[in-house]
């Protein structure tokens, strides 16, 4: 029952947050300089009648509140509007480009979780020169922005060594995976370093606790203690970074997709901002907010399964 109540409460909070985010996203675009009408006219000087016709067609002269509630009503019916730049439904643009972005983010997330947890665990358990090497490596990873990693990886492994394609998405699922390998590595590098350091720190804290010392002194195999007690207890701390990891992946995918020419929603967002394509920018931004909130909800629900000390009872959350 507590689980159900918590889920319902979190879903209600998500709905309220999405409503607030929709208002901020919609309003922020209209605070930016310039007008979509100037792009529609391709920068040409236009007569007042032509400009009025464009504004009427796209409802650009309507009051802000009217435009917002019209847009919100369309969203509730699954209609994201029509792209000003591409002259097609925004939902169709998202359907065409979202799979590539989701696959890229998923590949990067797998690399972050597998390599980050492994490096953090090895550094905490082995210590010594191994730990020092991992610390230096992860420090370099954390200090390397995604766009810098993209340029370096592209120059070395695509241009010089010809091991991977320099950009694009190829044809078919197999080619898509191959083309997204370098972008996924560039996108995950910073977060691998961050997660490794968080995991190492959390495990070292648990290793110093009394129950671990007692278990080791009683002859319990160290491997068993590390797996069943230290690593599992440390995962509670690691899980709290889940939202940060996903939000970073979603933000940085804009830069990485542009660098590698991946036709995902990140690249679409950059182009849409440049051309003042309001409906597309608003739809992509709201989609990213929704994905981020969904991941946070999953983390909150999984947290008690990893750490039984976390309660979903009244007045408490799994965060």
UniProtKB/TrEMBL annotation:
Which positions, given as ranges, span the membrane? 12-32, 101-120, 132-156, 176-196, 234-260, 280-299
The record's section on InterPro entries has: BPD_transp_1_N, MetI-like, MetI-like_sf
List keywords of the entry alphabetically: Cell membrane, Membrane, Transmembrane, Transmembrane helix, Transport
Organism of this sequence: Streptomyces aureus
Against Gene3D superfamilies, the record matches this protein to: MetI-like
Q: Which family does it belong to?
A: Belongs to the binding-protein-dependent transport system permease family.
The keyword Cell membrane appears for this protein: yes
Transport listed as a keyword: yes
The ABC transmembrane type-1 domain sits at 98-299
This one is known as ABC transporter permease
Major location, coarse class? membrane
Q: How does it sit in the membrane?
A: Multi-pass membrane protein
Q: Where in the cell is it found?
A: Cell membrane
